[in-house]
Design brief:
Blueprint (H helix, E strand, L loop, with lengths): L1 E7 L6 E5 L7 E9 L1 E9 L4 E8 L4 E9 L23 H14 L2 H14 L1 E3 L21 E3 L1 H14 L3 E11 L5 E2 L3 E8 L2 E5 L1 H7 L13 E8 L21 E4 L2 E4 L2 E7 L13
Parallel strand pairs: 7-8
Antiparallel strand pairs: 1-6, 1-16, 2-5, 2-14, 3-6, 4-5, 9-11, 9-13, 10-16, 11-12, 14-15
Helix pairs in contact: 1-2, 1-3, 2-3
């Protein structure tokens, strides 16, 4: 059993929205406890099967403690994560769709087609955190036909999932936190990766980690860099039935401040450590 602790390192705001967590073949988030605030409401995303906790801070540091248990034998990734969806974060523009189908076909289809699209996405980006993302202001994920574009794991995987799905592959966009082996179980940011499912084979891809660590061409691996990751959600484009939340969230990978119908990121410290006993919080068993 592990304990994932997310601490908000800034003064509390009126409302905070946080992911409840998911189960994957590696881990299952089984409970959420909150100190420095209370859970006002638990919301569901019906299309994706996700949960979100609406939190009201009550003074002092706001701390979220997730209980993370080993996944039961045979636990798959959530089925909804692979379901194609049409929104501006997930749908490929016509040029990207045509190019992706061509790349996969020329490679020979199947698993080698997947690898070819992974290589193509890797070739289109330089790892960075740009203020303006390559798909800002677009109605679909655009085709990057030549050269390289600055992008983070969010950008790279947006492009890759849209490309894979356009070529007819099942692909999931999964996110949570990654804890590098050399940082003592501490991180300050979210991380995301891609999962493909083809002919019964499930593969995990992390282009950004290959690029950042200089590991060479991306290969299928959950942790190409030494470390440990915990998934808290999947998919881009989420809707929750509460007027205080924007009608469409890009993703909910970590606690977000809510104010006047908009969200903003919070300064966080995230730690993963061993837990001596299972947490028994108010969200035990919620997915």
């Amino acid at each position: 059993m592990k304990r994932l602790t997310v601490t908000v390192e800034e003064p509390a705001c009126a409302l905070v929205l946080a992911p409840v967590g998911i189960a994957t073949p590696h881990d299952a988030v089984t409970a959420l406890d909150v100190t420095g605030g209370r859970i006002e409401r638990v919301l569901g995303e019906p299309e994706l099967g996700l949960g979100a906790a609406l939190l009201r801070p009550a003074g002092g540091p706001l701390v979220l403690d997730y209980a993370v248990a080993p996944a039961p034998a045979g636990q798959p990734y959530p089925e909804a994560a692979f379901r194609p969806r049409a929104n501006r974060f997930t749908a490929a523009a016509a040029e990207l769709a045509d190019a992706s189908r061509g790349i996969a076909a020329r490679a020979g289809g199947g698993r080698v087609g997947i690898a070819a699209l992974v290589a193509e996405a890797e070739a289109r980006f330089d790892y960075a955190h740009p203020e303006t993302r390559f798909n800002d202001g677009t109605d679909a994920v655009p085709y990057l036909s030549c050269g390289t574009t600055p992008g983070s794991c969010v950008d790279i995987n947006t492009y890759l999932v849209a490309s894979l799905r356009a070529a007819g592959y099942e692909a999931a966009y999964v996110y949570g936190h990654f804890f590098p082996a050399d940082r003592g179980g501490v991180t300050h940011d979210m991380h995301c990766w891609v999962v493909t499912r083809h002919d019964g084979e499930v593969l995990e891809w992390d282009i950004a980690h290959h690029m950042k660590a200089g590991l060479g061409p991306t290969r299928a691996a959950l942790d190409p860099r030494p470390g440990r990751r915990v998934a808290l959600g999947h998919s881009m484009g989420q809707s929750y039935d509460d007027p205080r939340i924007p009608p469409m969230l890009k993703l909910l990978s970590e606690p977000l401040a809510l104010h006047d119908g908009a969200v903003r990121r919070l300064s966080l410290s995230v730690r993963l450590a061993d837990a001596r006993a299972p947490a028994e919080g108010p969200l035990a068993g919620v997915r």
